[in-house]
Design a protein that fits this description.
Pfam families: DUF2807. This is DUF2807 domain-containing protein. The longest helix has 24 residues, at about 1-25. The N and C termini lie far apart (about 75 Å). About 30% of the residues are buried. It is built from one helix and 21 strands. By secondary structure, the protein is mainly beta. About 10% of the residues lie in helices and about 60% in strands.
Length: about 280
C-alpha cells in the first residue's frame, strides 16, 4: 500500500511539473497594433539586471534610474519589469510575434554590477559602460553588444548565445561553453579564458598576461591579440591561434593544433598524442 501511494505521488508530481513547463513554454501570442507610444517609468536603483524572452534593451548611464519603452501601444501591458532586492527583472506575459516598434531603454546608475541576458533577449550599449566591477552572463540564443570599461570583468557564455564586446579592464575572465560565439576587442593586464564544448572566441587587442584553457573541440582565434606572456592548455581536438611576444608555456594533447605568431620563447610542458605546433609569420 505504501509503495502504491509513493508511485501515485511521484506520478502526480511529474504530471504537475509537465503542466507547468508546458504552460510556461506556450505563451499566448500577441502582435503589435502598429500604433507606437512611449512610456517612461522611474524605478529604484538596481545592482543587477535580468532580461528574458525576446526583448531588446539598450542600456545608458543616468544618475536617475528609469525604464523607457517605445512600442506598439498594446504591447506595453505584456512587458513586465520590477526591481526586487536590487535586481531589475524583465519578462513578457505573452509572446510578441511582431511589432512596428519595440525598444526598451534602461537608465542605470553607478550601482550596476551584473547583467544577465537569457532566451532570445538582446542587450546593447552605444556608449561605454563605465563600471567599477562587472559580471556578464548570456544564455540561450541571447545577444550582447557592449562597450565596457571596468576594473574587473567576468563573463560567462552558454548555449548558443552571441556577443560582440569592446573591453578595457585591469583583469578579465571568460568562461565560454556549448556553441557560444564571441567576437571581442580586449585591452587588459590579466586575461583568463576557459573554452569548452565547441565554444568559439575571436579576439584582438592587447594583453600583458594570458592564461588560456581550450577543450572539447573549441576554437580560440587570437592572431591579432598581442600577448606578452601566455600559458596555454589544449585538449579534446581544440585549436588555438595565438600571438605571443615574450614567453609561452604549452600543454597540448589529443588532436589539438597550436598556430603560434610572434617571437616568444617556447616551453613545452606536455605535448602528447597527435598534437601539432605550427610556427607562423605575419
Amino acid at each position: 500500500m505504501c509503495l502504491l501511494m509513493n508511485k501515485i505521488t511521484y506520478t502526480l508530481i511529474l504530471f504537475l511539473a509537465l503542466v507547468f513547463t508546458t504552460t510556461a513554454q506556450n505563451k499566448e501570442k500577441i502582435k503589435g497594433s502598429r500604433i507606437v507610444t512611449i512610456e517612461q517609468t522611474y524605478i529604484d536603483e538596481f545592482s543587477k539586471i535580468i532580461i528574458a524572452d525576446n526583448l531588446p534593451v539598450e542600456i545608458v548611464f543616468n544618475s536617475k534610474t528609469s525604464v523607457e519603452i517605445e512600442a506598439d501601444d498594446n504591447l506595453h501591458e505584456v512587458i513586465k519589469f520590477e526591481v526586487t532586492d536590487g535586481v531589475l527583472n524583465f519578462e513578457t506575459t505573452q509572446q510578441i510575434t511582431g511589432s512596428k516598434k519595440l525598444q526598451i531603454t534602461v537608465n542605470y546608475s553607478s550601482k550596476l554590477e551584473e547583467i544577465e541576458v537569457n532566451g532570445d533577449a538582446e542587450i546593447r550599449s552605444l556608449s561605454t559602460l563605465e563600471i567599477e566591477n562587472l559580471t556578464l552572463k548570456t544564455t540561450g540564443n541571447s545577444k550582447a553588444y557592449l562597450n565596457i570599461r571596468t576594473k574587473n570583468f567576468n563573463y560567462t557564455a552558454a548555449d548558443k548565445s552571441r556577443s560582440r564586446l569592446n573591453v578595457v579592464s585591469e583583469n578579465a575572465e571568460l568562461i565560454i561553453n556549448d556553441n557560444s560565439k564571441i567576437e571581442a576587442l580586449y585591452t587588459t593586464n590579466n586575461f583568463k579564458a576557459d573554452l569548452y564544448q565547441r565554444a568559439d572566441l575571436s579576439i584582438e587587442g592587447f594583453v600583458k598576461s594570458a592564461q588560456l584553457r581550450i577543450d572539447n573541440s573549441s576554437s580560440f582565434s587570437g592572431k591579432n591579440l598581442n600577448i606578452d606572456d601566455c600559458t596555454l592548455s589544449l585538449e579534446g581536438g581544440s585549436t588555438a591561434v595565438v600571438n605571443v611576444a615574450k614567453t609561452i608555456i604549452i600543454e597540448a594533447s589529443d588532436k589539438t593544433e597550436v598556430y603560434l605568431y610572434g617571437n616568444a620563447a617556447i616551453t613545452l610542458n606536455k605535448f602528447l598524442g597527435s598534437a601539432k605546433l605550427l610556427k607562423k609569420e605575419f
